[in-house]
Amino acid sequence: MESKYRIGYVDEDINQVKKYQRRFKKLGFEVIGYDFVKGMKLHELMEQVYSSEIDLLMIDYKLDESNKVTFNGEAVESEIYDKRPLFPHIIFTNKKDDAEPHVEDWKIIFDKEDIFSEGEEDEDKVAHFVTTLERSIDQYKRHIQKKKSEISYLLEKGKSQKLIPEEKHILLKLQKELKVLDDTFIVEVPEYLMLSENISEIEKLKEEAESLLQKLIEKRKK
Description:
Elements: E1 5-10, H1 14-25, E2 29-33, H2 42-51, E3 56-59, H3 73-83, E4 89-93, H4 96-99, E5 109-111, H5 112-115, H6 123-160, H7 165-181, H8 191-194, H9 199-221
Parallel strand pairs: 1-2, 1-3, 3-4, 4-5
Helix pairs in contact: 6-7, 7-9
C-alpha cells in the first residue's frame, strides 16, 4: 500500500521502530525513526524531529530504559506542545499506566497492545486508531494551509499593487499566528513593507512587528 502520511516515531529501540514500520506500512503510513546516542540531550533529539518532514509525531513513553537518554516521552511531548502546539502528536506506548500520571492530555495516549496485539488484531480498534490519526493530520494541514494561502494571496497582490494599511496589518497578523503555531518556522517580513515611502503607515505597524522582527534578527545571528 502506498504511504499517504509520514509519521515520526520517537523510540530509542530501533527494533521497535522497525516493527511498527512494517505494521503501519500496511495501513498506509510511512514511519521514520530517529538516531539515539548515549548521553544525547532533549534538544538534540528535537532538532532531528523538527528537521524531519512528518505529518504526525508518535512518541514512546519509556525512552530511558536503555540508559541512552535521561528523559522520557512526556518531555518530548511537552517540547512539541510548546513549539508546535497544534501539531498532531500522540504517546504510543505499552507503558500507559506509567505515562498517564505525567501526560496532561490523556486523549493522546494510545496503548500499543490495544491497537497491535501479538495475537489477532481487533480490526475495529485499528480502524478507529487509523481514522483518528488521519483526521488529526488533515485538520492540522487545513488549518495551516488556510493561513498560508491568505499570506500568499497578499504577497502576490503586494507585488503588483500597494497594500492598504489594513491588508498589511492582516499579513503581519497571519505571519505571527503561524509563528505561534510553529515556533521553529522562520517567517519573512516582505521587503516592500520595510521600503514603503509612507513612513506614517510603518509607524502604525511598528508596535505589532517589533517583536517578530527581533526574533528574526536574533535567529539569524546564531
